[in-house]
Amino acid sequence: MSSLRALIAALLLPLLLLGGGTPDALAAPHARALTPWRYARRAERRRHRFGKKRDPRVNVAAVNRRLERLAAKHPDLIKLTALTHIDGDPIYRVDISGDKQAKRMLVTAGVHGNETTGVVTAMDLIERAVRDGGLRGRAQLTVIPLINPSGVRLGQRYSRNRKDVNRTFRPGQWMAESKAVAASIAGERYALAIDLHGAAKKGFFLIRGKEDRGMSSRILSAMSTGLLLGGRRFSADQGEYRLDAPGAATSNNPGTLKGFFVEQNADYAYTLEYSRHLGVSQQRRGLMRLLRSAIDNVAAHR
């Protein structure tokens, strides 16, 4: 043991003589050294806290309580309807009173339980509409902000029974969530129907349900081309999606909510996707910018 101490002293002595001072671990023996492993843990917590790398965690009960408080506080503006309950959690539909001459518009979110920035943005839209009379003057809004509560609780794309809710809006595939939403909006005519999602793609994009006579381009013009899917390096082939232009996509997935919008004769039917590679604050800002662009452009279109 004495020889080991002598060896350590011999190694440290040149550092002291050269003015390097004592190492931190010796100068402050009770301080915890910031090892690379601990730094990674701390950095991961920081990324989650400030929303740099992932969708936010969403508390289903807190979302529902917030909707209930808003409806109680603004009964003249908000009509809150529970479409069904999944394991005790309601799927709420929010109808926001707007100008009688304004176009009817529908926004949905939370169909995939791990794409929670859509839920947060839908809630942001509801709260903004309550405050903003100009927005209510341009649109009579209906918002269904959280369609798949069991998936959100589990932090997974699918529902509690491992089914993709966004493939069940068709005969023979119905489940409680899709059936309740479809029954609620069946027969209603919307100028705009838009479903909010997230994708592991490098950019925002809009998937149109049918030919839209250039409306996609007008909506996407609100965002810098570099932030759109295919904006930096264009490729028409994006796996299950095909791009006509940066950010303007089509897809043929069966049983989607967007497809149901088309069947219900919505004038403009879309899925709006944010990039899950971006930080949450960027996801929210970009999603809200494109959502507001969609509302404003459809409201202004004759």
Spell out the helices and strands N to C: HHHHEEEHHEHHEEHEEEHEH
Describe the largest sheet.
10 strands, mixed
Would you tell me the structural class of the helices and strands?
alpha/beta
Annotated CATH architecture of the largest domain: 3-Layer(aba) Sandwich
Provide the CATH top-level class of the largest domain: Alpha Beta
Can you put this structure into words, describing what you see?
With 302 residues, this protein is an alpha/beta fold. The chain has two domains: 2-50, no CATH class; 60-300, Aminopeptidase (3-Layer(aba) Sandwich). The protein contains eleven helices and ten strands. It has a ten-stranded mixed sheet with strand order 1-2-4-3-5-10-6-9-8-7, with helices on both faces. The protein is globular. The model is unreliable at 11-53 (pLDDT under 50).
